[in-house]
Specification:
Blueprint: H1 3-29, E1 34-35, E2 45-53, E3 59-68, E4 74-77, E5 89-92, H2 97-133
Antiparallel strand pairs: 1-5, 2-3, 4-5
Helix pairs in contact: 1-2
Length: 134
């Protein structure tokens, strides 16, 4: 496996983690979103990743889709809320902020790891060029 293959693997992983971080940011931004019906409520989103193997047998990370959570929305009886339905209920987003923060930390670390891989490849390439000079 060459430097180019390793760079492509790390680059695809960084792109996937960027999608993951953007999805988490969207979930956290909408964590307290309220709606008047369950169909209009914000549902947490999660990216779906897959390892795709290329012609040379080199795997890359690909984002297949971003799916909505099937968890039910949190229903609250708030008759004074202007968004309340006829029964006085509102529906809050099904975002678990603690789980999202833990997922954000994991995604950040995975991204940083791949940045480190890219840095090591650059360093190894520079060392290889120095060997060729002398």
């Amino acid at each position: 496996m060459g430097f180019k293959d390793i760079s492509q693997i790390a680059g695809s992983a960084m792109a996937a983690q960027t999608v993951r971080l953007n999805t988490i940011a969207s979930n956290l931004a909408n964590a307290n979103a309220v709606a008047g019906s369950e169909t209009d409520g914000y549902r947490a989103r999660k990216p779906v990743f897959a390892a795709m193997v290329g012609e040379e047998g080199v795997a890359r990370v690909q984002v297949l889709d971003v799916v909505q959570s099937a968890e039910p929305l949190r229903k609250a009886h708030e008759p004074d809320n202007p968004l309340a339905d006829a029964e006085g209920n509102v529906f809050y987003a099904n975002v678990n902020e603690v789980a999202e923060m833990a997922d954000m930390m994991a995604a950040s670390r995975a991204f940083e790891t791949n940045v480190e891989v890219m840095g090591r490849i650059k360093s190894m390439q520079a060392s290889l060029l120095k060997l060729g000079e002398g």
